């Protein structure tokens, strides 16, 4: 509770607003100015190709390396074994090298957040920059022979990165950043009536409710398509998105595009495919149920 209140206060700090806005415009502007190449780069950095956000996977590398360095520093100090100190130095170097792609993927994810999570993410990033500076200085001091001072800076860097990691976890578990917003757990497995067939207009996105699950319908001739209406990326309303002639729909919030036939991702930043529903018309009613994944 104390930590939650502290994070809330961080998110309300007025001095962060100018930094927040300038950085947001800069990150978005870089990708936008690169045109189609920028869009492809975003998909790579967001982890569309991986089917999972890339930033959390990369963030384990510097944190793990710096944890190993902290352990080896303690063991080196207690045992006097010089090879452990050399191992700590190498681990710090690995962490610094991994911090660069980790930061870039973090920025690619952060640009889509809004409100308090956006501000929390900014603090998370600034802390990581501070940790990188401390570890860089630590490595320089170690190589200059000032191992004691280098270990002190590494300890400060480790404390900084641990607090930053806590903020990152808060973004995921409390603010639901980079989680699947179209979870299938509560979606109907049995055919459920959602709309009279006569009410579904050809070529128009129509939102219906299937036992509490928002579903977007699309009629093309005799066929009715159905996708979960909540975008898997950050929960955008797909039924308010842009429909394309090739039976794909683009989320109005962040531009993820999905295919109606099987829910696959055409363009990110979404990394998880959109749930698809089977449809049928029975007694004049359109019925839907969650499609079974292919065997």
Question: Could you explain the architecture of this structure?
Answer:
- The chain has two domains: 2-173; 192-290, Rieske [2Fe-2S] iron-sulphur domain (Rieske Iron-sulfur Protein, 3-layer Sandwich).
- Helix content is 51%, strand content 16%.
- It is built from seven helices and ten strands.
- The protein has helices at residues 2-11, 16-33, 35-46, 54-79, 82-110, 115-143, 147-173, and strands at residues 192-196, 206-210, 213-220, 223-228, 242-243, 248-250, 257-259, 265-267, 277-282, 285-290.
- The strands form three sheets. Strands 5-6-7-8 form a four-stranded antiparallel sheet.
- Helix 2 packs across helix 3.
- The longest helix is centred in the N-terminal third of the chain and has 29 residues, at 82-110.
- The model has no long low-confidence stretch (mean pLDDT 92).
What value does the Rg take, in angstroms?
Answer: 24 Å
The number of helical elements comes to 7
Widest beta sheet: strand line-up: 5-6-7-8
Low-confidence stretches: none
Helical percent range?
40-55%
Element-level helix/strand string: HHHHHHHEEEEEEEEEE
The secondary structure category is alpha+beta
Number of discrete domains: 2
Strand content: 15-25%
Overall pLDDT metric: 92
Largest sheet: 4 strands, antiparallel
What would you call the shape? elongated
Number of strands: 10
